[in-house]
Predict the structure.
Amino acid sequence: MFAWRRTAVRQRVVVNLSDKAFSGVLWAQRGPLLVLRDVELLEAGREPQHVDGEVVVERARVEFTQVLPGGGG
């Protein structure tokens, strides 16, 4: 059921929330959390903004995740 989660680790992804998205490398999954590195914040009508450090997102807030082609970290 959740095989994509294992295969997407260390891949470049876009994690879509209701009001914004994050593009980055899915570095780890820790329980209900996704850890992203090398992240850009994506918001409608704005240029992508680099985010320092790691971004931690609760899976419950994720609407959908896109695994980008050839996107290894």
Summary: The mean pLDDT is 89.
